[in-house]
Structure formats: structure tokens, C-alpha cells
Design goal:
Two copies of one chain form a homodimer. Chain A is an alpha/beta fold. Chain A has eight helices and nine strands. Chain A has a domain of about 130 residues: P-loop containing nucleotide triphosphate hydrolases (Rossmann fold), CATH 3.40.50.300. Helices cover about 40% and strands about 20% of the residues of chain A.
């Protein structure tokens, strides 16, 4: 019998290095898959359909909402973003753990629909690193940067509702923490009850 | 600031290979210490004071009970067995995780006093392996073996109350599971809250 995979939700403020850590976990563990989101926004340079996003039009997206085909969805700067249910659940049934990279509201929606979801929040050990990375990596106005930092602060306030906090000061250590969490969650007594049930008193 | 270590309680039926798995975890992770129990029974051949047990007399043991120096204790075939608090707590404060090898009643006593304790139950994937190991390793009477198997069944019935079940079909895999559990427990949001508290809104 194949053990079901785990549903792993990963959030974290912009600048926390989420995607690097997720990529390392997936490279090391072939039993981990990534949930590709759907969006109505146009592909950016270098983005690949089916790898970075499923690029769909508004009519298609709204049909998915109507048919309850999304685990969560939100609008952001006029575009839809959402998580298709079917491919994720197929992977989980086949024994693969699936990582969902979603922001804090999306994470809350998923946890509500799937209480067994494991919620991981990624941050550096020191908040000032977020500030530094946000300032370092773009040429935005001071106002825009300030708004991003404010958003990051608001997201931190939600992190206590997560199951785990992974510290990303070094991507390898952070990836090891995330892999350990996935392994440990598969050892949960509630998940492994079947090994006990066969021993009847 | 040193992060506190975790209090790890490990139980499992006789024949589950607990001590081998614990020894491997400790070999791999210098931040894991073992809680040495106290007992009034006489040392067996090869047993070393302070490594296998603290061998004490009844008067000393009863004094420890009276002074609430034990995390848990029980009598077994006329002898006392118990877990001294102080060395374990000193290790935990110093950042070492401490493994307590105790049976199911002792585990319940520890969980009651220390709700933050992490309870791990070790079993092979198939109960018949327990039977095989219990039959294979001793020259006891059929009656004694049957009693041991009955005890193992009773212990299985308690395993659902544990946080995790580690499957020991192969000691390396089992040790990796146990190490992952310790790492994951250190990532719990409740344990890492301090990283959030410094970011005030």
C-alpha cells in the first residue's frame, strides 16, 4: 500500500529566499512535487508555462472558481492567482508530498479546507536581512520599498499560526530543516496508525 | 542565546530494537544526550555505573522519590526504576536534546509533568517481527515468551497516544526518522516564536 504524500504549504515574506530553499528540497527528494499555480497575468521573460505558472485567461480562471477546482485563490494587482486542486491531490494519492508556495491568506484558505496541511513559514533569523534584501535587489522608489517592508511585517504577524518556522540564513540548512519536517510529519502517530491497527488485542 | 534542547521520550515493545536506534542517533548528533535511569536492581554483567544505570540502594531511591527528584518511577519485579530530573534538565537548558528510554507508564508520567515532551514509539512495520525477535533471542519457556508477546500487544495499544511512530525495519532508516523528528520539533513555531517577537508591528 502506498502511503499518501503530505500537503506542505510554504509562505514567507518577499526576500526570505523561499524559492531557493524549495528548489533544493525538490532536488534532494524525488518524492516531493511542486504545485504550479494558475494565473491570469502575462508570462514574464524567462517564465515557462507549466513550470512557473499555468497561464490562463480570465474566463478560464473564473470557470475554475465556479467549478471549485481551486484550493485557494486571490486577486493581486488586478490579476487572479490560484492553486488547482486536481494535480496536487493526484500526486498526494500517489505518495508524493506536494509543496504549495502561497502567501498568508492563501495558506489560511488551504488549512481551512485541508486541516491535515502542514504550514511552514520561512524567515531569516534577523528581520533586518529582509530589509537589506528588499533594498538590495531592486531599483524601486523608497516608498515602494517601505510598502514591501510593511507587508513583510504584517506577514510576520501571521507566522505564529504556522506549524513550523524554518530559518533561512543558509539555504542548505534551511532545506535540511524542511526535509526533516516532511520526514517527521510522515512519522506522526495519526499518519501511521495503520501499523497499530493490525495488532488487535 | 542558546536554544533549549528537546525532551524526547522513546518507548517500544521489547524486541523493537530501541537501544540500537538510540545509539545511532547519539553517534550522529553530538547535541543529543541520554538520560541514565536510576535503579535498585543489581548491575548485570557488563553494565557500567553511570552509563547503563545509576545503581543505588532502596533507601537512596526512596529519598529521591520523597524529594521529588524523579520525573517518573515504577517498580518492576520488586525493584525500583526511575528517571532523575536534574541531569536531564541541565542538559536541556544547555541546548542538548535528551532521550529518555522509558516504558509506556513512565512516558505518560513524563508527558503529564512536561507537556512539551515529544513522545516517540518504535516498532517494526510488522508485529510478527516482534514475536520472531522475542523467540529468537532467548531460551525462555513458551509461557514466558507468550507473556512477553502479550505485554508487547498491550504496549501497542498505548502507541496511539504518542506523537510519532518510528518504523524500525532497518536501524539506519529508523535513526534518520528519529533525527528528523528532533530537527522538526526544533522548528515548531511555538519553539521559535522569539524570531517573530522581535518584529513588532
Amino acid at each position: 500500500m502506498t502511503e499518501k504524500g503530505k500537503l506542505i504549504v510554504v509562505s514567507g515574506p518577499s526576500g526570505a529566499g523561499k524559492s531557493t530553499v524549495i528548489a533544493r528540497v525538490m532536488k534532494d527528494d524525488p518524492d516531493v512535487a511542486f504545485s504550479v499555480s494558475a494565473t491570469t497575468r502575462a508570462p514574464r521573460k524567462g517564465e515557462v508555462e507549466g513550470r512557473d505558472y499555468h497561464f490562463v485567461d480570465r474566463a478560464f480562471f473564473e470557470k475554475m472558481i465556479e467549478n471549485a477546482e481551486l484550493l485557494e485563490h486571490a486577486q493581486y494587482v488586478g490579476d487572479y492567482y490560484g492553486t488547482p486542486k486536481l494535480p496536487a491531490f493526484e500526486n498526494i494519492e500517489a505518495g508524493k508530498s506536494v509543496i504549495f508556495d502561497v502567501e498568508v491568506q492563501g495558506a489560511a484558505q488551504i488549512k481551512l479546507k485541508c486541516p491535515e496541511a502542514v504550514l511552514i513559514f520561512i524567515i531569516p533569523s534577523d528581520f533586518s536581512q529582509i530589509e537589506k534584501r528588499l533594498r538590495g535587489r531592486n531599483t524601486d522608489s523608497e516608498e515602494k520599498i517601505a510598502r514591501r517592508i510593511e507587508t513583510a511585517r504584517r506577514e510576520y504577524a501571521m507566522a505564529e499560526k504556522y506549524d513550523y518556522i524554518v530559518i533561512n540564513d543558509d539555504p542548505d540548512t534551511a532545506a535540511n530543516e524542511m526535509k526533516a519536517i516532511i520526514t517527521a510529519e510522515k512519522c506522526r502517530a495519526s499518519y501511521r496508525k495503520k501499523y497499530l491497527n493490525e495488532v488487535s488485542l
